[in-house]
Specification:
The complex is a heterodimer. Chain A is mainly α. Chain A contains 11 helices and no strands. Chain A is 76% helix and 0% strand. Helix content of chain B is 26%, strand content 34%. Chain B contains 10 helices and 20 strands. In chain B, the strands form 4 sheets. Chain B has a 6-stranded mixed beta sheet with strand order 6-7-8-3-9-10, with helices on both faces. The relative contact order of chain B is 0.11. Classes of the chains: A mainly alpha, B alpha+beta. Chain A binds chain B through residues 129-130, 132-141, 143, 147, 150-151, and chain B through 50-52, 72-73, 76, 79-80, 82-84, 86, 90-93, 102-103, 106-107, 148, 152.
């Protein structure tokens, strides 16, 4: 049997049943990326709604900055978070560096512009109409905001999933601020990277299969939610 | 029931004036028809009345109150007394029933099944409560908008181009509904490009152009005695004649227009002038027609154009061609054909001079 097929066989064997190490890595990945996505979404939803619904001075600049920040490499965000959290950095006393908390912060910073920009471009076509409609039908300001969110929930969900997919597959930045500490900050991508360099392809393959499965499941959920 | 008053209310969007200061009032039980070319500001005016667009200058008073001065809750209550039908039908994603229920839901009321069924029957959407609004046709969407408006029993009913996508039957039904709404003492304002509708509905015509109110008066005044050349061009398929105003031999003013001399009722300053003669105010006869009408021009039939039960007869009387509108039977009884000699008779008071630009 070729080493490639042998690797796949052994990798799959590691998953059925999964060992404690793999389970821990997978759960930490989902937890860190899920929390980061949620955190980013909490800020991105009101931000994109405000951008779509209102005209204000400097709006074009804000949109420009948002779109530019899509192009910021993850590794730069990693550097920034590292400098902020390192022992002599401004947030050093919090002792967050090389903890899951640091990874959540970095991933949330990476996901925010992505989620905000995607939902802004989806909402800007519908938000004003939804506001006019709700107002003309007698909705109060709160009811109007709710109606706009309801109208935009699918594009927003899509943006959310895109953000989650982006951060759960992120490696370099997560490694920089998390440190890939076994049992503490080792997530799927950093584990695959390390094990591959060590020549332990089975674990890498096993985690790769899990990552692909997560992507599939998440997208299937999204399509169900959209009723397609 | 609600009065709406505009006091020098104006709207600028992005630095451009969309509506110049307007001062006018809308009253309960009255239908006001807003006419005007594309981009005249009709929709902006309606949006301002619906509290969707704030005036950037002047004041809009709903029931004597400025909406901007009211606390939020009162402003929402004021909005709930106003209904608007959008030009491009607007709905929330969802079913017909959910869209009809929404305006009641925000008011903390339910839409009982019986009332839903009755509404659907009235707007011709029976059994469609579960349908997704996206699958409705343009006309069905317009009717659904009207049904939605009526459910909230608004004191002010605003319609933006409501009939653009309605078939003739729905159109007549819609007209009756509008008349009924006004008859119930509601304030009705609608914009349209349909001049026939404006004429049948409009006790009052507002003509907007480039954001300025050029006419505010009865439909008869607007169509027979327009206040400006633009309004005349917009409102009429009538005869617009350019000529030279000269003193008439027996006093008063005549218009010299090619080889034609037309008597006017009033006096006009000497010089270039434009007049309007409505095609249905000219009498056509094969021989001179003796009457009190001061204008009787000999001519020749140039063209005969049939439009349903009516016929447009274009005649050459020595100046620019004059168009006359007659019924088909009367044309047949006159025995006129292209080339026939003919006499055009009309009163001096049917010649309406347009104010100089």
């Amino acid at each position: 049997m070729s080493p490639f097929l042998e690797g796949i066989r052994q990798g799959l064997a590691l998953l059925f049943p999964p060992g404690a190490e793999i389970t821990g890595i997978v759960l930490l990945s989902l937890g860190v990326s899920g929390a980061a996505t949620l955190l980013a979404a909490l800020a991105a939803l009101p931000a994109s709604l405000a951008l779509a619904a209102f005209d204000f001075r400097g709006k074009r600049a804000v949109v420009g900055i948002l779109q530019t920040s899509l192009a910021v490499p993850a590794v730069l965000i990693g550097l920034l978070v590292y400098l902020l959290l390192s022992r002599r950095g401004p947030l050093g006393p919090l002792g967050l560096l090389y903890t899951p908390g640091a990874m959540v912060i970095a991933q949330a910073l990476l996901a925010f512009p992505l989620i905000a920009a995607l939902s802004y471009s989806a909402l800007k076509g519908t938000a004003r109409e939804a506001i006019d409609l709700a107002h003309s039908l007698g909705a109060s300001p709160w009811q109007t905001a709710l109606a706009v969110v309801r109208q935009g929930r699918f594009p927003f969900l899509t943006a959310l999933i895109t953000g989650f997919s982006r951060v759960i597959g992120e490696t370099g930045m997560t490694l920089m601020v998390g440190g890939n500490i076994k049992g503490e900050t080792r997530v799927m991508t950093t584990a695959i990277s390390l094990e591959t360099m060590k020549g332990n392809f089975e674990l890498g393959i096993a985690l790769g299969v899990v990552l692909l499965t997560v992507a599939l499941v998440v997208n299937a959920l999204l399509q169900t939610a959209q009723g397609k | 029931m609600m009065d709406i008053e505009l006091r020098a209310a104006s709207v600028r969007l992005g630095g451009n004036p969309v509506l110049h200061p307007l001062t006018l009032a809308f009253h309960p039980g009255q239908i006001a028809v807003v006419l005007g070319p594309n981009g005249a500001g009709k929709t902006t005016l309606l949006r301002m009345l619906a509290l969707l667009t704030r005036p950037t200058g002047g004041t809009v008073l709903h029931d004597g109150q400025r909406a901007a001065d009211l606390p939020r809750a009162s402003r929402t209550r004021l909005r709930r007394r106003i209904g608007l039908v959008f030009q491009a039908p607007l709905f929330f994603a969802g079913t017909v029933a959910a869209n009809l229920a929404y305006p009641l839901r925000v008011r903390g009321q339910a839409l009982p099944a019986e009332r839903l069924r009755e509404t659907l029957r009235r707007i011709g959407l029976e059994g469609r409560e579960r349908a997704d609004v996206r699958v409705l046709s343009g006309g069905e969407k317009q009717r659904l908008q009207l049904g939605r408006l009526q459910l909230t029993d608004p004191e002010v009913c605003l319609f933006d181009e409501p009939a653009a996508s309605l078939d003739p039957v729905s159109n007549r039904w819609f007209e009756q509904e509008v008349v009924r709404l006004a008859g119930e003492g509601r304030t009705v304002v609608l914009t349209t490009h349909n001049l026939d509708r404006a004429w049948t509905l409009g006790a009052r015509i507002l003509y907007l152009q480039d954001g300025e109110l050029k006419h505010d008066g009865s439909a008869d005044d607007f169509f027979s005695r327009p206040q400006s050349l633009e309004a005349a061009l917009f409102s009429t398929s009538g005869n617009l004649l350019d000529g030279e105003a000269v003193p008439a031999s027996g006093g008063g003013t005549s218009l010299r227009c090619g080889a034609m001399t037309i008597a006017l009722a009033g006096s006009l300053p000497q010089g270039p002038a434009t007049v309007l003669i409505r095609p249905e105010e000219i009498l056509l006869s094969p021989a001179p027609f003796h009457s009190s009408a001061r204008n009787c021009l000999p001519g020749r039939v140039q063209r005969v154009q049939t439009a349903g039960p009516m016929v447009w007869v274009t005649c050459d009387c020595g100046g620019p061609p004059l168009t006359v509108r007659v019924t088909r039977p009367s044309l047949e009884s006159l025995g006129l054909a292209v080339g026939s000699p003919v006499y055009l008779t009309f009163k001096a008071s049917s010649v309406h001079p347009l104010p100089p630009p």
